[in-house]
TrEMBL record:
Residues 62-135 form the Transposase DDE domain. This is Transposase DDE domain-containing protein. InterPro entries: Tnp_DDE_dom. The lineage of its organism: Bacteria, Bacillati, Bacillota, Bacilli, Bacillales.
């Protein structure tokens, strides 16, 4: 039987997902916004990266209006325990006059996002895994409750 990691969403981080991948552990750990992503309110937040489309071929994000956020630079961030996250920054150059600008870009600035593509890929895999047969495993397992 394959190894599986089941934990609270507080454990759903890029670092933990990467550790499990390296150890060949099947991850069944929600990330912190997974449940909220399923709500209508979340879907209406057009400025959220989860509501944009990523064009892998051009390495650009596409907003609700269809404008492109182009790659600007990448930066490595080291968290407290030494794990390094590569964050990529993307910026839209066509926000002026956009009817969604106030909701999307938070004011008069152009829309800028900073994202770990690795974590976005991990989140996509988690969404897929938890929406299929692995969800049955979680629900049918007898996991002890903390209390």
């Amino acid at each position: 039987m394959p190894k599986r990691a089941i934990a609270d969403s507080a454990c759903g981080s890029e670092e933990n997902y990467t550790y499990c991948e390296k150890k060949q552990i099947i991850v069944l750990i929600k990330y912190n916004t997974l449940d909220r992503e399923q709500t209508k309110a979340w879907a209406k937040e057009i400025g959220r990266i989860e509501n944009m489309t990523y064009d892998e071929k051009l390495d650009e994000w596409i907003c609700a209006k269809g404008e492109r956020l182009v790659f600007v630079y990448k930066r490595k961030e080291t968290i407290g325990n030494g794990y390094v996250i590569v964050k990529r920054t993307y910026r839209c150059t066509a926000c002026a006059g956009c009817p969604f600008q106030a909701a999307c870009a938070k004011g008069k600035d152009t829309k800028t996002i900073r994202v770990s593509l690795k974590n976005q890929q991990q989140r996509q895999e988690i969404r897929k895994r938890l929406s299929t047969e692995d969800l049955f495993f979680i629900n049918s397992s007898s996991c002890p409750m903390n209390g």
